[in-house]
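Below is a filled-in request sheet from our internal design queue. Each sheet records the structural input a requester submitted and the sequence that came back. We keep these sheets so that new team members can see what a complete request looks like end to end.

REQUESTER: design group, bay 2
PRIORITY: normal
MODE: inverse folding
CHAIN LENGTH: 98
BACKBONE (tokenized):
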């Protein structure tokens, strides 16, 4: 599994209806992706994971890095960018909607 649902999720339930394998579940009011059922939409008619494509928030469903250090440095760079105000609005917009 390469995706996870974060705390940015607004519980709109769009991901429940668009997932072709029904991997998105609700447990105790929280959405999560079942790693046993998730195929990242590989082998289906979709070219991108539908949980990510259908999410109205840009950070509700995010790519989960497979390597611990890759995820650590990505998080570090994101936080440092926010703290130093070096995060460009248009770059963030492009990354979200492209």
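RETURNED SEQUENCE:
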């Amino acid at each position: 599994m390469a995706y996870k649902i974060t705390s940015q999720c607004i519980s709109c339930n769009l991901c429940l209806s668009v997932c072709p394998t029904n991997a998105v579940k609700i447990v105790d009011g929280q959405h999560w992706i079942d790693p046993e059922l998730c195929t990242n939409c590989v082998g289906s008619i979709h070219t991108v994971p539908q949980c990510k494509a259908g999410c109205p928030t840009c950070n509700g469903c995010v790519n989960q890095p497979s390597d611990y250090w890759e995820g650590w440095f990505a998080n570090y760079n994101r936080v440092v960018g926010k703290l130093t105000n070096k995060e460009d609005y248009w770059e963030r917009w492009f990354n979200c909607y492209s």
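SHEET NOTES:
- The longest strand covers residues 24-27.
- The first helix runs from residue 14 to 18.
FILED BY: M.R.
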